[in-house]
């Protein structure tokens, strides 16, 4: 005889031949087994659609930042080209590409060191994303182009790797929206990470470039490489192009 549980699954099965009842029961059971699979598919498609929407928004944001930066350059004369990444680590190159899709404020200035082929925007702050897309103005120090000791930090395996080849007397240019100043490297030295005296105020307008050291150290580098440059009074300070 047909088991009572099979008839309880669906009242419409009462009175049907046993084989048909079993077939209908199997169909019902199969439908129930497919429900979790269908739910997972729906969830996966929803996640994919969400990720796609976020990616489109990020690309649109990056395009907006590029257009805004182009407007700023045209208005104030800040010209930055794609960096020479010959000496960069593969990880830093990938991080630089990823950082380009993150929104960011316009640069404070452009730093150029002709002797090592460096041209890089100076951004506010020293967080990871900022240092992946440029070099960063160190908090609580004067901004680039102001009186005092302006601190600028950069990654040793990215924009600031070329500092290993810099020498005394090399020119450093700082271009702001109002003018371009020329500095000359005074000295380079190595300190511990806890030595923040390198950022102490100076009597003359100065730049202090900071990066980790050794340059090719595997892992977290234990020391800091410092480059100090002072404004060259004898060099011409060019006004930025008029708006």
Task: Give a quick summary of the entry.
The protein is an alpha+beta fold and 243 residues long. The protein has four helices and nine strands.
Q: What is the topology?
A:
Elements: H1 4-9, H2 18-76, H3 90-99, E1 109-113, E2 118-124, H4 128-133, E3 135-137, E4 149-153, E5 171-175, E6 179-191, E7 206-213, E8 223-231, E9 238-239
Parallel strand pairs: 2-3, 4-7
Antiparallel strand pairs: 1-2, 1-5, 3-4, 5-6, 6-8, 6-9, 7-8
Task: Describe this entry's structure for a reader.
The chain has helices at residues 4-9, 18-76, 90-99, 128-133; strands spanning 109-113, 118-124, 135-137, 149-153, 171-175, 179-191, 206-213, 223-231, 238-239. 33% of the residues lie in helices and 23% in strands. The chain folds into two domains: 4-57; 81-239, Sortase, Chain: A (Beta Barrel), CATH 2.40.260. With 243 residues, it is an alpha+beta fold. It has four helices and nine strands. An eight-stranded mixed beta barrel has the order 1-2-3-4-7-8-6-5.
User: Could you name the CATH class of the largest domain?
Assistant: Mainly Beta
CATH fold node name of the largest domain? Sortase, Chain: A
| Structural class category | alpha+beta
Q: What is the averaged pLDDT score?
A: 79
The number of helical segments is 4
């Amino acid at each position: 005889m047909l088991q009572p549980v099979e008839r309880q699954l669906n009242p419409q099965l009462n009175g049907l031949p046993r084989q048909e009842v079993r077939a209908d029961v199997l169909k019902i059971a199969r439908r129930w087994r497919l429900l979790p699979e269908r739910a997972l598919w729906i969830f996966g498609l929803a996640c994919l659609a969400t990720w796609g929407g976020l990616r489109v928004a990020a690309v649109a944001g990056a395009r907006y930042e590029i257009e805004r930066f182009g407007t700023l350059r045209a208005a104030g004369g800040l010209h930055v080209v794609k960096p020479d990444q010959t000496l960069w680590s593969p990880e830093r190159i990938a991080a630089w590409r990823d950082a380009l899709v993150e929104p960011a404020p316009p640069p404070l200035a452009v730093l150029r060191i002709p002797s090592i082929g460096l041209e890089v925007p100076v951004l506010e702050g020293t967080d990871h994303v900022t240092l992946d897309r440029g070099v960063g103005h160190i908090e609580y120090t004067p901004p680039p182009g102001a009186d005092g000791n302006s601190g600028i930090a950069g990654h040793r395996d990215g924009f600031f790797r070329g500092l290993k080849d810099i020498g005394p007397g090399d020119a450093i240019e700082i271009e702001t929206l109002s003018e371009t100043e020329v500095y000359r490297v005074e000295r380079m030295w190595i300190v511990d990470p806890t030595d923040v005296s390198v950022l102490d105020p100076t009597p003359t307008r100065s730049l202090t470039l900071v990066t980790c050291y050794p340059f090719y150290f595997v892992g977290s580098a234990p020391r800091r490489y410092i480059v100090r440059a002072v404004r060259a009074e004898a060099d011409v300070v060019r006004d930025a192009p008029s708006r």
